[in-house]
Give the backbone structure.
Amino acid sequence: MDKKIVKTITKEVISDLLPKDGRLIIEHLCIGSRKEYYSYTESIRTSSTGDVSGGGTRTNSYLVFDFGFAVSNISSISMRIQFTIIEVDKDGYTVNNPRYIWDDIAPGEKRRLWANLYVADSNVSKFKQYLIKEIGVGPTPSNGKNGFVTWSAMTTPNKSIFSIFNLFMIYKLFTSRLSRFGCLIIICAALAYMLLLLFRN
């Protein structure tokens, strides 16, 4: 499925977060969005009066944000880029294993790398728990993907993806657009009614 890019932040805006290496340039960070669906079988329930309810197949959905970044290798050697993403609880303790978004970028190549972050529709605040812990840039090891990397530049932003992109506002825009429009109509109608009463008096 194609990812719909929702918001892009250029390197100029977040320059303090990015490692400085003139050979591999992080052009921008971006967020994509899509919905995914899953089906489940609902249990059949019988009430005290003998009425039967439930049963059948139901479909539910959840929101997927795809965190990504674009890089350009302007050097003559292969370069490696790695983002380390951690998840923390409300007290700041790390939970689950770190996630690594990384690849080796060939000379002259431009790439966009992605990581899927799944969020239930009712729990977008979970995004506050995803932090970009480290960003490293360096030459690709001579012995390949499993080789030890000596980073030529590294930063430790420890910054939440939520705060960088203000994802809560984006989420509310996607899921509550009609609700907001309805509330706006109600507010306008109430103001009009108040003005009408004011002029009558």
User: Anything to note?
Assistant: The first helix runs from residue 161 to 165. The chain has two domains: 4-165, 166-201. Helices lie at 161-165, 167-175, 177-200.
